[in-house]
Amino acid sequence: MIIAITTISSTMISMTSTTSMMTTTITPPDVIDWHYSGNRLHPTEEPVQSLKPLISAFTKPGDVVLDPFSGSGSTLVAADELGRRFVGIDLDPDHHGTAVHRLRHLTVPA
The pTM is what? Predict the structure, then answer.
């Protein structure tokens, strides 16, 4: 399934799914709990637990999550834990190596 975000405001996101051509309105929470992890793996590292509500709101199990600036791979780990497939891209070889190391410890079906 491919989702196109067509309208973004502070309270509403309107999306169109190319498989059903239906418009769904999702109202995400105003604030998502954020637990500082200490940025041990990347200077702008996001906690995996804070990314899960966003991935859950916009994808279904089995969908593909694309992170074109994957850094240490937090989004990819969150996607895997929620049963999503994932693609991560990062230009920095050190951050790429960190993400690959994290992802090797996941149970990813073939």
Answer: 0.64
